[in-house]
Amino acid sequence: MLSHSSLCSLPLVEKMNVVGVQISIGPILKSLKSFTSRFPPSLIGHSIGNSLEVRIAHNTFALPDPFRLLEEDDVPKPPGHAKTADVFHFVSYVSVGGAVYELDGLEVGPVLLGNVDVGGGEGGGEGGGETWLGVARRRILDRIERARGGIQFNLIAVGVDRLENLKEFRANRNANASANASANAAGGGGGGDGVKSDSSSSSSRSTLDLDVLDALISDEEAIRERWKEENRRRRHDYLPLIVGVLETLAKKGKLRKMLENADEGQRAKGKGKEKE
Question: What is the pLDDT averaged over residues 236-251?
C-alpha cells in the first residue's frame, strides 16, 4: 500500500535529482537519491516510507502520545460519512537550463511549465523576458484559484545555507587579506609614503570587511541557537505537567470553578459575535 505520506514525498526525491549538484543534501538523502535513481514513482514512495532515517526525521516533530485520546475520527460514523482529517500534499517548482518544471508526486514525471531567460532573477531575465519565479508564481496562483478557498497553501523556499556561505566567503576574504599583507611586506621600503598609505588603507578596509562578516556570522549562529531552543520546546512533552496542574487544582477544589468561568467566557464571546 502506498501511503499519502509517500506520495507527497515524491517531489522531494525528484527535487534532489534536479538540484542535488547545487545544494548539499547530506549523506542520508544522497544515498536515497542514488538508490532510487532508476525507480518508478510508486517504488520511490515505498522506498521513502521504508527508510528508517527519513521516517525518524519526518516524525521528529510529532506530538507526544503517551496515551491515545479519543479523537473525532475514532467516533463511529454513519455509512458514507466523509473523512475530515487533514491531508498534506507537496509540490515543488524548479528552474533547470532555462526551463521551469513542476514536480508533483501524484504525476508520473516533471511537468514542463515554460521556458525563461537563463540568468534572470526576480526582476527580469537578461533579455527582458519572464523569469522562472514569474512562471512558477502564475502556476501557483492558478492552483489557488482552482481550489477556491477549499485548500490552504504555504510556500517554502529551499536554498543554500546562509551561514555556510558567509563562512566560506570570510575564509576567502581572509586568505586574500593575508596574501595582500604578504605582498605589501615583501614590497615594503620600495615605495614612498604614498604607497605605504595606500597599503595601510587597504589593510584597514580588509579588517573592516572581516569584522562585518564576523558580525553577520555571529547573527546567523544566534538565529540557529534560537531555532534549537524552539525545536526543543516543540518536541518536549508538556502533558505530564498539564495533568499535574489539573490534579492539583482539582484537589484544592478550584478546577470546577475555573471550568465554569471558562464556559461562561465562551458563551459571552458567542453572544458578542451573534450581535455583530
Answer: 90
Give CA–CA dist 229/207, Å, rounded: 33
User: Rounded to whole angstroms, how far apart are CA atoms 216 and 221?
Assistant: 9
Residue 8 lies in a domain: yes
pTM of full prediction above 0.70: no
Residue 143 to residue 149: CA distance in whole angstroms: 11
Pairing mode of beta strands 99-104, 91-96: antiparallel
Residue 102: phi and psi, rounded to 5, are -105, 125
d(CA 135, CA 3): 31
Residue with cell 516533530: 61
Q: Three-state SS for 60?
A: coil
Residues 230 and 117 in one domain: no
Complete DSSP assignment for 128-162: S---HHHHHHHHHHHHHHHHTTSS----------H
Say how far apart CA 270 and CA 266 lie, in whole Å.
6
Number of domains, the chain: 3
52 with 124, same domain?
yes
Residues 125 and 230 in one domain: no
Q: Residue 189 and residue 230: Cα distance in Å, rounded?
A: 57
pLDDT value at position 210? 84
CA 20 to mean position of chain CA atoms: 16
**Among 144-148, 169-173, 231-235, whose mean pLDDT is lowest?**
144-148
Cell numbers placing 201: 588603507
Q: Do residues 121 and 37 share a domain?
A: yes
Three-state SS for 210? helix
Whether 61 shows a pLDDT value over 70: the answer reads: yes
